[in-house]
Write a structure and sequence with these properties.
The protein is an all-alpha fold. The protein has one domain: Orthogonal Bundle (Hypothetical protein af1432). Helix content is about 65%, strand content about 0%. The protein is built from ten helices and no strands. Helix 5 runs antiparallel to helix 6. The longest helix is centred in the N-terminal third of the chain and has 21 residues. The protein starts with a helix and ends with a helix. The structure holds adenosine-5'-diphosphate. The site of adenosine-5'-diphosphate has 16 residues, from helix 9. It is an enzyme of class 3 (hydrolase). It catalyses: P(1),P(4)-bis(5'-adenosyl) tetraphosphate + H2O = 2 ADP + 2 H(+).
Length: about 200
């Protein structure tokens, strides 16, 4: 699907406020992609589609994950429903929007949870979702500051804030986010040792 048609179709899937968030993620994804050497066209496409399934009814998301999406995120069904829209979004992007690029589909699929060994594009879109201009939460200024120089340090601060928030609320933590955080720490330590 062409860019403009995709934008209009996704916009129709969500309330105005969420569309403003999506516009923010588009803008920030392109900015981060240019800053850190990712493909800005892919970054923007993943950003356009990242929340396409956000307003699906829960039973529809569950049906998609148990049906055509089986094997994609089976373990996720045990965790907070807030996380489901990301892999469902990747399914929708491929099926209804004709996205075939694996990098783009991966960035949509992992934009909320993260994962171990995240690709450059995964990191860009996940971080953009944390720090787009409309986001307001205690750690966001620190995340934006870190993102001036380090994609990994900024994303780590993002995961830290999500994990701290979940701990505070007494909620369960989907382990892939913990794995993503641990992996970033190992990589950052390795990099520091090399310097
Ligand atoms: N690892 C996790 N385990 C459980 N809940 C999580 C995890 N990561 C994120 N969440 C929750 O998922 C919700 C949606 O995340 P958010 O990134 O704000 O949404 P969106 O992807 O739509 O922008 C948040 O309430 C967040 O706390």
């Amino acid at each position: 699907m062409r860019r403009e048609a995709m934008i209009e179709a996704v916009r129709a899937q969500m309330p105005e406020k969420r569309w403003s968030h999506t516009l923010g993620v588009m803008h920030t994804s392109v900015e981060l992609a240019n800053r850190f050497g990712a493909d800005p066209v892919k970054a923007e496409q993943a950003a356009i589609l990242h929340d396409v399934a956000k307003y699906w009814p829960v039973d529809r998301m569950e049906e998609a994950l148990r049906g055509e999406g089986r094997g994609l995120a089976d373990d996720l069904l045990d965790y907070d429903k807030e996380l489901w829209h990301a892999p469902v979004g990747a399914l929708v992007a491929a099926r209804d929007y004709g996205v075939t690029d694996g990098d783009v589909l991966s960035a949509i699929r992992f934009h909320t949870s993260g994962r171990e060994d995240m690709s450059l594009l995964d990191k860009v879109v996940c971080l953009a979702d944390y720090m787009e201009p409309g986001r307001q939460f205690p750690a966001v200024d620190k995340i934006r500051e870190l993102a001036e120089h380090s994609l990994e340090r900024a994303l780590l601060a993002g995961f830290d804030s999500t994990i701290a928030f979940l701990l505070e609320k007494g909620k369960r933590i989907y382990p892939l986010t913990v794995a993503a955080r641990n992996d970033l720490i190992v990589r950052l330590n390795r990099e520091a040792d090399r310097q």
